[in-house]
Amino acid sequence: MYDDIFKSVKGLLDKAGRVLIATHVVADGDAVGSSAALALIALHFGCDTRIFMRTGLPSEVPLRSMPAPIVRYCAELGDFVPDVAFFVDCGDARRAGPEMERLILKRSLPAPEAGEEGRGPGVTVVNIDHHAANPMFGDVNLVCEQCAATAELVGLFAEYLGLPLTGDLGEAVYYGLVTDTGNFTFANTHAGSLALGARILAAGLDVADFSKRCDNNWSLGRMRLWGTLMRGVNLFADGAIACCTVSRRLMEEFGLGNEDLEGFASWLRRVKGVRVGFLLREDGPENCKISLRSMGDFDVRAVTAIYGGGGHVSASGATVRLPLAQAQALVLKEIEDRLRADGSADASKILYC
User: Fold this and answer.
1) Cα–Cα distance for residue pair 135/127, rounded to 1 Å
2) Are β-strands 18-23 and 48-52 bridged in parallel, bridged antiparallel, or unpaired?
3) Which residue range is the domain that position 52 belongs to?
4) What is the DSSP letter of 111?
5) Which residues fall within 8 angstroms of residue 116, CB to CB, at 6 or more apart?
6) Which of 193, 149, 197 is nearest to 171 (CA)?
7) Is 177 within 8 Å of 156 (Cβ atoms)?
8) Is 285 in the same domain as 147?
9) Tens of pLDDT along 99-139?
C-alpha cells in the first residue's frame, strides 16, 4: 500500500549524511515513540541524526534511552545542517514550533544567530503523520488517517526495510501504538494496529516489563493532583459532557507541569453516559488549552477546528485565547449546540458540581 512512498524515503536515507527528526511541542507517547523509532532507522543507514523537541523530552518516558541527541533550539545544532528533515506526528506546520515551521516553509534552518538568513543549500522535508487535516507540507508525504498512530507508519516502514521490530526499535513503535490507542481500546484501534503490536510481542517484547515502566511511574504529587481534579468534575447536557478545569494556581500549588495532565482528558469518558470529555487548562490570564475526547460517536475535531486546533474525531485539542471562565462557557456552548442538533437532552443543565 505504501511501497512507492517507502521506496522514496529509503532513497533519501540512502543518500543522506545528516538527518533531523522533529515532532510536535509537548510530545506525547506517539511523538516520542515514532521519533525514537525513526532515529534508529536513520542510524541503521549510517546517518548522523538529531531529534528536535521544542519542549524537551517528557519526564516519564518508558524507553530505556533515546537513540540520538535531543535539541530544543536550532542554535544547539551548531554546524549540523541536515540533508533530510523528518516531521513526525505533526498535523500542521506550526506543531513543531516556530523554528521548525520556518524550516518547513523555507526549506532552510535559521542561522545560529537567529537572524533572517538561512543556512544550508536546502533541506528535503518528509512528513510522516496520521492526522486527517494534515496539509501535506512535505516534499514527501507519508500520511494515513487510517493508521492508529504515526508510530504504526514508522513500524511498517521498518518492516518494509527488513528491520526486525526487536529491542529498542520494537519498544519505540509499541510505545507510540499503545499511547494513541489507549492500550488498544480507543475507536482508532483496528486489526492492522493489533497485528503490528502482536508482531512486536512475537519478536520478543516483554509486555509486562514495558507496561511497568510505562504506567507505574507516577509521582505522589500527580496522584494527588488527579484526585483533586476528579473531585472537581462537572456533568452537563444530562450527563453527556464531563468537564474539568485546571487553573495555573492549582498546578503551581502541586508544583507540577502540564505533562502531569497527560491522559486525564480520556478518563473523563469513563463516567457512564458521557459522550464528550472536556478538559480545560489555564496557561495564562487569557490563554487556555482545550482537550476534547469522545468514543468516536461525536466529532470533537469539528469543535476544535473552530479555534484553529485539530486532531482526530475522538481526540482533539486547541488553544482558546480567553480567560478560563469565558473559554469554558464558549466551548461548552459549541459542544452543547452540536449535541442538541444530534438529539441529545437539554445541554445547559448541570447535573453535578
Assistant:
1) 10
2) parallel
3) 3-214
4) P
5) none
6) 197
7) no
8) no
9) 999 899 889 888 766 555 666 668 999 999 999 889 999 99
Under a CB-based contact definition with an 8 Å cutoff, are residues 319 and 287 in contact? yes
Supply the CATH number for residue 111's domain: 3.90.1640.10
Q: How many domains, in total, are found in the chain?
A: 2
Residue-wise pLDDT for 24-66, tens only, equals: 998 999 999 999 999 999 999 999 999 999 999 988 899 999 9
Say how many C-beta atoms besides its own lie within 10 A of residue 320's C-beta. Answer: 23
* pLDDT tens by residue, 268-306: 999 999 999 999 999 999 999 999 999 889 999 999 999
Cell of 172: 519505540
Give the three-state DSSP class for 173: helix
How far apart are alpha carbons 131 and 154 in whole angstroms? 14
> Distance between CA 258 and CA 8 in Å, rounded?
38
Tell me the C-alpha to C-alpha distance, in Å, between residue 117 and each of 102, 104, 107, 108: 11, 15, 12, 9
Same domain (yes/no): 192, 120: yes
Cell of 152: 504504526
Q: Please, how many CA atoms are within 13 Å of residue 89, restricted to the half-sphere of its CB?
A: 31
* Length of the chain in terms of residues written: 353
DSSP state of 84: E
Under a CB-based contact definition with an 8 Å cutoff, are residues 196 and 163 in contact? no
Kindly state the helix (H) or strand (E) to which residue 334 belongs, with its residue range. Answer: helix 324-341
Strand partners, 142: 128
**Together in a domain, 259 and 197:** no
Last residue of a domain, one of 214, 236, 270: 214
